[in-house]
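re: ur question from earlier - yeah i can do the single chain one, its not a big deal. heres the input i used so u can compare w yours
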Amino acid sequence: MYQFTGVPSTEGEPPVSALRFLYHVTLKQDRVIEMIPLPKQECQLPVILSPEEVMRLLEAAPSFSHQVIFSTMYGTGLRVSEALHLRVSDLDSQRMMIRIEQGKGHRDRYVPLSPKLLELLRTYWRKLRPQPWLFPGQFPNQPLSREAVGDAIARASERAGLKKQISPHSLRHAYAVHLLEAGTDIRKIKLLLGHRSLSSTARYLLLATTSVCATTSPLDLLPLPIVDPKS
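and the output i got, formated as tokens:
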């Protein structure tokens, strides 16, 4: 019986994916599959906008409606699809909550409705009177498309002079990191984002540079200053 280790394949050796295919599909040896490690995937951290950059993006929105959509995604941390499928009836101004119906994983949840966002949404509703979708598309009975929001983000980013490569999902990333940097407990952020696993939320710890880099070094906690012993 061969024993496979996590040592990367060298030139001339079959790649891991080929070995897994051989034993799983051709040889029907599923027990061997368990001993073949999965290829490591590169871990790329998303680009995070600073609060100042978020403000510039909002101010550069192509229209007032787009500004409201951007503000809703940043103010709630919703996924793009969740924000675009909001109905007017999902807003609960009495309890200051927004109901997210059948989000990712087919799970319902609530997120806070901030006073500033509520004021903005009321102004938006009085101006456009959308029904039933909060953000209708070209046809009133259909919500706005992801492509339309992506195009609006690209135009706003260019108008704002942002050098970072961003997408609509960047507003959700910024929401999570800015909450974390403000001291919000990571378990609470997990619930707000609708993550199934805490590990999905924990990656934002790598991005919260303001709080992480502000950590006191143990060297600074030493009671005596460090001096040159020859002096």
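The radius of gyration is 24 Å. not sure if urs matches, ping me
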